[in-house]
Amino acid sequence: MGAGKSTIGRRLAKILNLRFFDSDQAIENRTGVRIALIFDIEGEEGFRRRESDVIEELTGQSDIVLATGGGVVLNHVNRKNLAERGVVVYLRAGIKQLLKRATRDNKRPLLNTDDPRKKMEELLKTRSPLYEEIADLIVDTDRQPVSQVIEEICKYRAIQ
């Protein structure tokens, strides 16, 4: 959340002439409502079920760049699908930068809390090892411009 997945993914897809998908956007398109409303009505569990269905479908496609929601790695089937069906790039950033980026809008239901920093730290503690487990490439996005992150990903792709 806030690492730059959608921004970087969209630009990367354009450079590589691939189709771009954002799993959260796909869920919103299918349901006709915002992610926050799904959380309000169905809770995180309901949202995660929807997310898994979308990940199953999208990872079955080829020649795409897929930006996932930050919690996608919580489900072992999602991790398996991502790891086996594509190249996984973990865009990593520090807590300060993540909070700065993620709190720019109110579309982050998990950060709608009295202490967003504490919540972000908890999320990172849980999620980071899971991303590291499946990542083919880890790129730190804290102090790098988007163009440099994309260049690093393209270099990795070229040697594969």
Describe this structure in words.
- The protein has 160 residues and is mainly α.
- It has a single domain (5-159), classed as P-loop containing nucleotide triphosphate hydrolases (Rossmann fold, 3-Layer(aba) Sandwich), CATH 3.40.50.300.
- It has seven helices and four strands.
- The chain has helices spanning 5-16, 23-31, 35-58, 76-85, 95-102, 116-134, 146-159, and strands at 19-22, 64-67, 89-92, 137-140.
- A two-stranded parallel ribbon has the order 1-2. Strands 3-4 form a two-stranded parallel ribbon.
- Helix 1 (5-16) crosses helix 7 (146-159) and helix 5 crosses helix 6 (116-134).
- It is globular.
Short description:
With 160 residues, the protein is mainly alpha-helical.
Order of helices and strands: HEHHEHEHHEH
**What general form does the structure show?**
globular
| Strand runs, count | 4
How many helices? 7
CATH topology: Rossmann fold
Please report the distance between the alpha carbons of the first and last residues. 27 Å
Low-confidence stretches: none
Structural class: mainly alpha
Please state the second-level CATH architecture: 3-Layer(aba) Sandwich
On the 0-100 scale, what is the average pLDDT? 88
**What is the top-level CATH class?**
Alpha Beta
The percent of residues in helical segments reads 55-70%
What's the domain count?
Answer: 1
- Taken as a percent bin, the fraction of beta residues is 5-15%
Radius of gyration: 15 Å
